Amino acid sequence: MRRLAIACLLAVVVAGPAAAAPFQVQFDVQYLGSFTVELHDDTPLHRDNFLQYVTDGAFADSIIHRSDRSVDIIQGGGFYFVGTTIMDIPIPYDPVPHEADLGWSNLLGTLSAARTGDPDSATSGWFLNMADNSDIYDPVTEPPGEERDGYTVFGHVVDGWDVAEAIYALTVWDATTLLGGAFGDLPLHDTFDNTGPLYADDFVIITWAEVVPEPATLALLAAGALALLRRRRK
Question: What is the pLDDT confidence band of residue 214, given thresholds at 50, 70 and 90?
Fold first, then answer.
């Protein structure tokens, strides 16, 4: 009973003042460490969509399937490698409408939504800008005839940038023959030598992704739990 009461109090605390703090999500990367992104409140549709996939556990055991030096990005959120087979991340939610005109520019270290040629088609896919990509990924409204929808920026890296750089530094392979057209810029660990089949350990794997409480949130949680325990002891 006491545990249930504490859980209820924590839920109230989280829903209160701490909810005003931007959400942060930590990605744990097998063999390399972790990096943390902070989500932007000014692109709420993309923020909330991303959080749905995170809380569903959709990114657990997913792979970084693209490291493209021609446009300076690393990309994930689209695929798993299970056994010897590539599998798509399930898409249970509707695509997200375009918000590129509301968010930040596609600068170094920002998190953007991957999509098809349809600007309103973003789902689970995401990419990190490994350079200033504002000149190729930001929306353009003029001159007439040269408009560009751009790609929605909905977060930025706040910790673990060295892990993103370590991913970007890995050898990139053209694996289209083995895996299909989405894998022409596939980053792999040095365990792969191009002489045999691909194994799970060859891939850059996101082992887990989760929402990380802000330090202020943690302090509120601790204070609330302690206050409840003290009241119950009286």
Answer: low
